[in-house]
């Protein structure tokens, strides 16, 4: 059985913290982890072009990445780049030289030991357009729409919930932004024993998605132009691959009809999709005991619709097929079960999971101005299931 997300995170954190003082970033046995079962090197700095690495060789010496994301990220001067799981900072330094003094590169890592090492390497290299921040892949401490490119080197597979990470990547990317990952793609026949092996997880194998799962995860979080290109085999049941995708530009602004002597304005319509847990009716505001949080949520969703948003709610008890049909929702249910509900998507992107958002939070997610606090509470609907009389869900209140 696969370990709980918090156990996986702590195990990975401990291994990376120890690695800051060794030559490994995927575990405490560099030779074993850098090589496959036949003793062939499959992870590490040898994948980088020696001429390109140059003065950043020291920062890359401890790398046990599975590829070279900077080689396919197509970085340009002036861009802002985020490196997930930046480790000792090698890819950050390469990126910093690519984007130049007008650009900026941010390295994100969860271990204080790795951050200290990366900062020291940046100081030694004399690179000033970089910043290293501490945080988790599932909760990136950066504003929405704040970076142009997100890169990572064999890091996504270490996260317990890849769907949340991809949603966070989509959130921090500006419209039209892109990702360039080097990561491990699992074969479809990876056995259960390998998947449950924590040593294989921290060794960048067990947590890998299959090609189909990675494709669905990227598409489910709004990415297009998905390209997954395998490069070399790193395990009996896994291959390294280059993964690239683009976040579409938003061009949904529509002019509002105007008359003479008025200034044209624009309005933006957003689609808000709510995937609810199984409830007695479409809103949950029914029966003898109504949860006030549900009543407020329904009221706030109605307010959101009045502001021009298209709001759609789906009840797991009444529309289970809709949950399966959405790759992002299906993946979240597969990893978190019904505790992941309710799920709120805005224009197809994940905005919340497992909680009822407030009116202010809904407005922020939809890109609206700060609202007046919602005070309207809807009256409960008739006791019992709200499905049409004679339907299959009438008995037992769904």
TrEMBL record:
Transmembrane annotation, as ranges: none
Gene3D superfamilies registered for this protein in UniProt: Glutaredoxin (3.40.30.10), Vaccinia Virus protein VP39 (3.40.50.150)
Class in the EC hierarchy, top level: transferase
Pfam families: ArsD, Methyltransf_31
Keywords, alphabetical: S-adenosyl-L-methionine, Transferase
EC number: 2.1.1.137
Domain Methyltransferase: 76-209
Domain of life per record: Bacteria
Keyword Metal-binding: no
Catalytic activity: arsenic triglutathione + 2 [thioredoxin]-dithiol + 2 S-adenosyl-L-methionine + H2O = dimethylarsinous acid + 2 [thioredoxin]-disulfide + 3 glutathione + 2 S-adenosyl-L-homocysteine + 2 H(+); arsenic triglutathione + [thioredoxin]-dithiol + S-adenosyl-L-methionine + 2 H2O = methylarsonous acid + [thioredoxin]-disulfide + 3 glutathione + S-adenosyl-L-homocysteine + H(+); arsenic triglutathione + 3 [thioredoxin]-dithiol + 3 S-adenosyl-L-methionine = trimethylarsine + 3 [thioredoxin]-disulfide + 3 glutathione + 3 S-adenosyl-L-homocysteine + 3 H(+)
InterPro entries per UniProt: Arsenical-R_ArsD, Arsenite_MeTrfase-like, Methyltranfer_dom, SAM-dependent_MTases_sf
Keyword Protease found: no
PANTHER family, per database record: ARSENITE METHYLTRANSFERASE
NCBIfam families documented for this protein: chaperon_ArsD, PRK11873.1
Record family assignment: Belongs to the methyltransferase superfamily. Arsenite methyltransferase family.
Name of this protein: Arsenite methyltransferase
UniProt organism field: Rhodococcus antarcticus
Protein's gene: arsD
